[in-house]
Amino acid sequence: MKKTLLVLALLAPGLALFTGCASDHGAYLPVNTTVNDVENAAGFVLLDSRVQYSVTCPGIQETRLPDGRLQVVANLRNREGRRIQVQADCVFKDAQGFEVEAVPFRNVFLDENAQESVRFISMNNAPVRYTIRVREAR
To answer: Which residue has the higher pLDDT, 3 or 121?
Structure first.
């Protein structure tokens, strides 16, 4: 019995050293940084599942106007056999992907299986990139 107590008395501090205490050791790296960050890489995104089913974008045209402003035209196509209303906006970004200007959402009416062009023009020549976003009309 005394040997068992002696062994336990010696093992307890050793186990405590190996398990350690629950403590914070400083800063941590972010987790899942590439999950749901489509807007950082794509020029066109759909913001909800219903619009994802109903709308597609077969083409985007970007041009620089003579004064240096960026103009973006997106063709939105209705994939359904009914008339739908969606909202579209454009976020203009600098070369590093930071927002420099956001155009407010505007209503777009798409007839059955029709295609409409939506034009966005930046206010100055700072934008280099953009993301066109489409959501269900509210």
So the answer is: 121
The residues that bridge with 32 in the sheet, in sequence order, are: none
The percent of residues above 70 in pLDDT, for the chain, comes to 78
pLDDT averaged over every residue in the chain? 86
Domains of the chain: 44-136 (2.60.40.3230)
Contacts of 134 (CB under 8 A, 6+ apart): 44, 45, 46, 47, 51, 55, 57, 76, 86, 87, 88, 108
Between 116 and 27, residue with greater pLDDT: 116
Pairing of strands 84-93, 99-110: antiparallel
Residue 130 C-beta-side C-alpha neighbours within 13 Å: 28
d(CA 45, CA 27): 33
